[in-house]
């Protein structure tokens, strides 16, 4: 067997005269008057190899049988090309290999799509033949960057005293959170393991166990209906620390992010990252993961229009809602159609409508302008900084609806006006998330993060008076409108934990039923602790400029959780189920007379 | 909150005079005439902190409430101890902290066992309270070493051009191998994912995908009945390469092993590691994972005794079996009871008995001696190097039985005679495993490794004549009698793959039914490739001198696959099962009249 002495893509003029053996795949072949040129590809790149009757002998005849994606081994000498045949598009463009010996290592059928970047192929075909898709340089580079990013995370954490600890994949179904994947037990009939949605409980147990600084690049599982940026199994960089303040932890994580972006994409991020409270983020950007690469902040004008003749403004303002406005600078020239299209856009985010005003030739125009009083116009002009050519957009509704409508409108306008610089990485910490949210259905407070999230020390008195106003020591790291990480400091004092469960409507005894072993652990000396988890797939997606998580994963699943390559999930043998003490229940078909679902 | 400025275990005389804040757990407290001494522990070690009415003020009163495993924060000054109170047993033994301020961060109930090394506790109690168990220095050190070992693996592989790629956990049930853990699909009724027994197929697909050098520290799953050194989920360092020879790969892995042992336990291993063929290992040591820290090799004496009057020897020799002997040097003095105990020992490994001869005062003694002819005694004396004081042990049976009996006897005697130096790490490669084994039940050959294992080039002709004699390019790395790694070169040529399946009794069409997508991938240009996987848990076990895999895993499962800490597996809500389109089948009880299992 002729095994490689050199990599294809690394040969340069300095290798001229060297005898080399190369292994690789046939990218392309050209026969020019009896001389055969083959572009040979390995993971480092492409080099031109030449077969000529003058120096190749019978190697030429063998090479002549090679087709696209055959695997070849060739030996020969590196020579400089004629200057007029230099190829500036490839690193090895000034040299070629005069082949003396060849071995066809293996043959290849014609691939279902060309193995090259930029080719338009249906994604399902790419996933079915993922092993061919992975040969394309952009996929190779993505996996390379992913591997490098993992190393940067690990090196930083190792250097800062973190211990990598593996936590179980076969664990217990948790009472909160998303839907679990279950694994029937053979040894324990009618019992199940669950795959972890995150190592949350284990990492807190490790802190109780005195590990002080833990990390793991952990696989997590959620059996949810998928969107473009969700996968049933995904990877997070999971971190937990003891005896650090929130600021100390966030500083450390910033340093890590700076290193990550410097060493992968060469970006120099400035520190400290902006810190914005959840309240400010929602007020100004209508989002808890604002894209801060551009301004276009929304302004609350409820106070100005609370007595307005614009009926909807006044009535919303009078019933606890808010009225907010965006000033789309220079957009007064939008067409009627563009303005009309805003209504269905608003509806998509739950809004009942969008009012607009254009400012043209010094004049406010639009259906609602006639209802404004002069003092309202003057107050709005000042608050919104209104100038000639502006387009003002108003949403009046419940706070959350206004945030959704104007927040998404802000992004749409930002993109359309080219306000977003794609070369910029704009990080920020969103801090002071609310500890509790009111569940209208259950008529009780629920934990916004999880029941172990530590409230702000200064807000403890609010447990008695206004639990909804308590700020949590919880934070998200956002990048260009994506949440790339999030976490919290955790409760470590029994009395605070009791206040928390009381606010959630549980006694400690009831809490034990759900969180028994973690609460029990907390009784044996719990250090102040807190952590964070980074969405690794999403970070790699942003680092590689992709818009789809599947592009960052070697063997991803489709939106309906199928692996097209190995055809999973799939039926199994009845004997396998029998050993697991389970039986499948056929989905009720919709045939007449069978419409009712069986009562299980 | 008073957060640590220093680590407890790292303070030395050079810190005298420094004001420090420490956080940690109360290891021990002693009240000596109104002065309170507490040993405060964090993950770096222990330091003595002192509360004295003279300088501690009310901190003394607060400290007085602290009990074992309370978490404290203390501030004070590092002072040198009186020389007569130096404690040479701890690193900080020459200093102590005069505490001025204290905060009880959290209280602790009395732990169910003392948090210290060497304590005798029932393992199930340790597992239930694993978070307390993990506070013990030996568990902390184990997790620290495990983390360090992972880093050494990764650093070496990163430095040598390997790319870390994550492969799916939710994948497809494989037709071969051990029992799979299954995961019912909610989206695809009556279909199942399987958890991977190893990333074998994916790593080969990555080679087809042109990754060339892959690694992953991968979680693997096998639903088997457990032994002390098995876990339902375990970790392997999974490696695959393209365009390397077996020797190149093994050399690289040796370099990695040398680095690992140097940087964790400071052992200097000499290279190259011994390479021993499977045939030699079985012949000399009766094992494919021989402990090579001592000799005591077994000798084949079938030729000498084939015409012997020792009936069992002659008849075994005449019917295709073998007769082998061990010379236990200096053991002629074993008591009759010790010799009698050898019979049940042999029986445990399938042997029908063990013949023995002692050599005392120049004379051979034992029940079978009278049947030996003088020329047999003289031939045996020469082959076995018999001397005064020796004990000869004979086993006659099928080859495999003799290997098991004498192989295990060799280990037992080696241990009892103190022939094994526990401070030595003796690595060896066992190579040239057989490609195929004869399955007596199925009356056909089966793959000893897997159906993609590459046969020796020189042995290809044996497919026609003697498939059982074909040597595979398969290898195990053994250390002190444990298999710590194993792998093979893989078939990359269609015609060899066809020969292999033919030998296994399959047509290519039938093979496609089992291995469809991998075989299809092989049709699109397959590089010569091969790999290895290291048992990471077992390596950590050997590096830390443990004898139980559970000691190396933060949250292990018991022998019946239970997680005692979080009580998994466990029953789940009926609604969860309904969503997964499954129903549990109660285990048939053994009540009279219900003895028959339901037909599923």
Automatic annotation (TrEMBL), chains A, B:
Q: Which GO terms describe its biological process?
A: aspartyl-tRNA aminoacylation
Signal peptide (residue range): none
Q: Does the keyword 4Fe-4S apply?
A: no
The answer, when asked if Aminoacyl-tRNA synthetase is one of the entry's keywords, is yes
MF terms (GO), sorted A to Z = aspartate-tRNA ligase activity; ATP binding; catalytic activity, acting on a protein; nucleic acid binding; transferase activity
Q: Where primarily located?
A: cytoplasm
Supply one GO CC term from the record: cytoplasm
> What EC number(s) has UniProt assigned to this enzyme?
6.1.1.12
By its UniProt entry, which InterPro entries does this protein fall under?
Aa-tRNA-synt_II, aa-tRNA-synth_II, aa-tRNA-synth_II/BPL/LPL, Asp-tRNA-ligase_1, Asp-tRNA-ligase_1_N, Asp/Asn-tRNA-synth_IIb, AspRS_core, GAD-like_sf
* Record-annotated Aminoacyl-transfer RNA synthetases class-II family profile domain positions: 145-556
Task: Write down the chemical reaction(s) this protein catalyses.
Answer: tRNA(Asp) + L-aspartate + ATP = L-aspartyl-tRNA(Asp) + AMP + diphosphate
- What's the top EC group for this one? ligase
Subcellular location(s): the record lists:
Cytoplasm
User: What Gene3D superfamilies does its record include?
Assistant: Bira Bifunctional Protein, Domain 2 (3.30.930.10), GAD-like domain (3.30.1360.30), Nucleic acid-binding proteins (2.40.50.140)
- Which residues are listed for L-aspartate binding in this entry? 176, 222, 449, 490
Supply the alphabetized keyword list: Aminoacyl-tRNA synthetase, ATP-binding, Cytoplasm, Ligase, Nucleotide-binding, Protein biosynthesis
List ligand-binding residues for ATP.
222-224, 231, 483, 535-538
Region (Aspartate), start-end ranges: 200-203
Q: How does it assemble?
A: Homodimer.
Regarding protein family, the annotation reads:
Belongs to the class-II aminoacyl-tRNA synthetase family. Type 1 subfamily.
* Protein purpose: Catalyzes the attachment of L-aspartate to tRNA(Asp) in a two-step reaction: L-aspartate is first activated by ATP to form Asp-AMP and then transferred to the acceptor end of tRNA(Asp).
The molecule here is called: Aspartate--tRNA ligase
């Amino acid at each position: 067997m002729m095994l490689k002495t050199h990599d294809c893509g690394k040969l340069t003029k300095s290798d001229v005269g060297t005898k080399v053996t190369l292994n690789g795949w046939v990218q392309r072949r050209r026969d020019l008057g009896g001389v055969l040129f083959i572009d040979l590809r390995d993971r480092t790149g492409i080099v031109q190899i030449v077969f000529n009757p003058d120096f190749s002998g019978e190697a030429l005849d063998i090479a002549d049988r090679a087709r696209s994606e055959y695997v070849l081994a060739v030996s020969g000498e590196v020579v400089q090309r004629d200057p007029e045949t230099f190829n500036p598009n490839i690193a090895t463009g000034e040299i070629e290999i005069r082949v003396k010996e060849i071995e066809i290592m293996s043959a290849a059928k014609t691939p279902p799509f060309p193995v090259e970047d930029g080719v338009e192929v249906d994604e399902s075909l790419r996933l079915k033949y993922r092993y061919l898709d992975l040969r394309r340089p952009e996929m190779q580079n993505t996996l390379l960057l992913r591997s490098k990013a993992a190393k940067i995370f690990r090196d930083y954490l190792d250097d800062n005293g973190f211990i990598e600890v593996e936590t179980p994949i076969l664990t217990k179904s948790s009472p909160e959170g998303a839907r679990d994947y279950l694994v029937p037990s053979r040894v324990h009939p009618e019992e199940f393991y669950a795959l972890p949605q995150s190592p949350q409980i284990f990492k807190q147990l490790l802190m109780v166990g005195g590990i002080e600084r833990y990390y793991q690049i952990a696989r997590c599982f959620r059996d949810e209906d998928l969107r473009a940026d969700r996968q049933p199994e995904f990877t997070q960089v999971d971190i937990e620390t003891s005896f650090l303040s929130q600021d100390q932890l966030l500083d450390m994580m910033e340093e890590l992010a700076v290193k990550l972006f410097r060493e992968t994409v060469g970006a120099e991020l400035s520190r400290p990252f902006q810190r914005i409270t959840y309240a400010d983020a929602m007020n100004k950007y209508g989002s808890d993961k604002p894209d801060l690469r551009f301004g276009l902040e929304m302004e609350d004008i409820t106070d100005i229009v609370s007595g307005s003749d614009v009926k909807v403004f006044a009535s919303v303002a009078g019933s606890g809602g808010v009225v907010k406005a965006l000033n789309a600078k220079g957009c007064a020239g939008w067409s009627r159609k563009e303005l009309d299209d805003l209504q269905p856009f608003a509806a998509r985010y739950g809004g009942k409508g969008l009012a607009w005003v254009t400012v043209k030739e010094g004049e406010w125009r639009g259906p609602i302008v006639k209802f404004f009083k002069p003092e309202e116009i003057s107050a709005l002009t000042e608050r919104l900084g209104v100038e000639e050519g502006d387009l003002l957009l108003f949403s009046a509704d419940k706070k959350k609806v206004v945030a959704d409508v104007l927040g998404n409108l802000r992004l749409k306008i930002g993109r359309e006006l080219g306000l977003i610089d794609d070369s910029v990485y704009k990080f920020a910490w969103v801090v002071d998330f609310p500890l509790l949210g009111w569940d209208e259905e259950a008529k009780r407070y629920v934990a916004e993060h999880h029941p172990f999230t530590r409230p702000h020390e200064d807000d403890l008195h609010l447990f008695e008076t206004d639990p909804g106003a308590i700020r949590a020591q919880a934070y998200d790291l956002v990048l260009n409108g994506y949440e790339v990480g999030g976490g919290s400091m955790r409760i470590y004092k029994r009395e605070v934990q009791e206040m928390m469960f009381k606010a959630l409507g549980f006694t400690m005894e009831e809490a034990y039923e759900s969180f028994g072993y973690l609460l029990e652990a907390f009784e044996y000396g719990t250090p102040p602790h807190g952590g964070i988890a980074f969405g690794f797939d999403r970070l790699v997606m942003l680092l590689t400029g992709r818009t789809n998580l599947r592009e960052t994963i070697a063997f991803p699943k489709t939106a309906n959780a199928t692996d097209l390559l190995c055809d999973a999930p799939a039926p199994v043998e009845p004997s396998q189920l029998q050993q697991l003490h389970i039986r499948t229940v056929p989905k009720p078909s919709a045939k007449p007379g069978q419409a009712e679902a069986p009562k299980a």
